[in-house]
Amino acid sequence: MVPRLSSGWPSRLFWWRAARTPGAHGQPSTRNGASRVPPGVSPRVLAGGGPAVRRGSSSPSSRGPEVALTCERYPVRRLPFSVVSEEDLASFERIVPGRVVTDPEELEASNVDWLRTMRGCSKVLLKPRTTEEVSCILRYCHGRNLAVNPQGGNTGLVGGSVPVFDEVILSTALMNQVISFHSVSGTLVCQAGCVLEELSRYVEERGFVVPLDLGAKGSCHIGGNLATNAGGLRLLRYGSLRGTVLGLEAVLADGTVLNCLTSLRKDNTGYDLKQLFIGSEGTLGVITAVSILCPPKPGAVNVAFLESPFYVLVETSGSRAEHDAEKLGGFLDQALGSGLVTDGTLATDQRKVKMLWALRERITEALSRDGHVYKYDVSLPLDRLYDLVTDLRARLRPPAKHVVGYGHLGDGNLHLNVTAEAFSAPLLGDLEPYVYEWTAGQRGSVSAEHGVGFRKRGALGYSKPPEALQLMQQLKTLLDPKGILNPYKTLPVQA
Ligand SMILES: O=C(O)CC[C@@H](O)C(=O)O
Ligand SMILES: [Zn+2]
């Protein structure tokens, strides 16, 4: 069911299909089992709808019952870090005056993840504005053996951005300044706490685009994007952050500032150290500033939305509207003529393009309204991408409600989501390790783009050999010997 497109042409390509598990309740399906609209997306949205809901836009407390403490739901033991004392709070107050948050209500939003499935019990949140302040905080915490949870927009889906116990939360929210923008090369240098959507607006006003786009753009921070090596909606077109990031600045666990914030296109001076921090999820250092290459804003954008039983969104971007329209028209004629595609709609004007993208971007939000969501984010060979979904639909019974498969077709990335009314340990047992074994059987990856965080660290062995895991551990010990940075995350669970 994959439309054949000339290689390298589509800039973004997504798909989804939804169906109920046997015996589950939910919205009516069409005869072939596919919903007419993506799950949870109302026809009103299809017809024009409201603005896209941003991940993180609704406060956790406004969305249902109390979230269970992570340490009560999952088998995890607190490591022997110190406990924050009154004296520590006074020291923090000297480092970031007026920006030490201890109010439990304010802390709640930072202790709970966006999915509302993980909750820490941190007693303090710090809001530095500068790299020097981050350095002082880490030097202090290192000396006192206090664990630290670096936090950006808290939009992650693997529990990497919230504390597991009482880690000090170090937020980048106030580190939101653009440092420089080069109007010829498109090189953007900014602090880590800049919100992705605001950066997008900033560079688009100057004729460029950020090479990264996500449903969570309204809340996520660029530093968090780098720390998690976020993939997102433009990866097929512009490649991963590992290619578009030119440099970064990070603060190490002991407070050392590592300034690799270059903007050079070529720099072949030995190890590419910035790559260590991209995707390290705050376990090796706290990213404080980034330098990123922004491509020119495309002059023409076309979006095609093609229909059933799979829904595919194809975006093309180029510089000459007539040329692009002709190519896309040729493809659509061929796809419709061959019966590969049954129906579709095409958009070139901004409003409709945005509306079509909202359908895709809001699936995560829609799923979160369906109860507890078990999320898997796997890379698979393209010809097996959907088999895992079909397989699970046949296997699972209630309390599973919906098994939804969507993702990034062009990247071979399946987002497998299983919903249930509430968390169920037996259902988790039905899903894991089955999903991971299935993925490993295809030589796939158990985390295509969401990272490892707290949730996937037990599954790393399905995608990396023991030697690679050992090297990861050695690097962690080298850079953070006391293990204070984002503990309980990203590295394999220690026996
Ligand atoms: O919610 C998910 O499973 C995927 C979220 C995100 O990576 C997306 O592609 O929309
Ligand atoms: Zn995705």
TrEMBL record:
It catalyses: (R)-malate + A = oxaloacetate + AH2. This is D-2-hydroxyglutarate dehydrogenase, mitochondrial. It holds the Pfam family FAD_binding_4. Residues 52-67 have a biased composition (Low complexity). Catalyzes the oxidation of D-2-hydroxyglutarate (D-2-HG) to alpha-ketoglutarate. Also catalyzes the oxidation of other D-2-hydroxyacids, such as D-malate (D-MAL) and D-lactate (D-LAC). Exhibits high activities towards D-2-HG and D-MAL but a very weak activity towards D-LAC. Its cofactor is FAD. It comes from the Eukaryota. Residues 22-67 are annotated as: Disordered. GO terms for biological process: malate metabolic process. One of its GO terms (molecular function) is FAD binding. InterPro entries: FAD-bd_oxidored_4_C, FAD-bd_PCMH, FAD-bd_PCMH-like_sf, FAD-bd_PCMH_sub1, FAD-bd_PCMH_sub2, FAD-linked_Oxase-like_C, FAD-oxidored/transferase_4, Oxid_FAD_bind_N. Its EC number is 1.1.99.39. It comes from Phyllostomus discolor. GO terms for cellular component: mitochondrion. The keyword Nucleus does not apply. The keyword DNA repair does not apply. Keywords: FAD, Flavoprotein, Metal-binding, Mitochondrion, Oxidoreductase, Transit peptide, Zinc. Belongs to the FAD-binding oxidoreductase/transferase type 4 family. PANTHER family: D-2-HYDROXYGLUTARATE DEHYDROGENASE, MITOCHONDRIAL. Residues 118-297 form the FAD-binding PCMH-type domain.
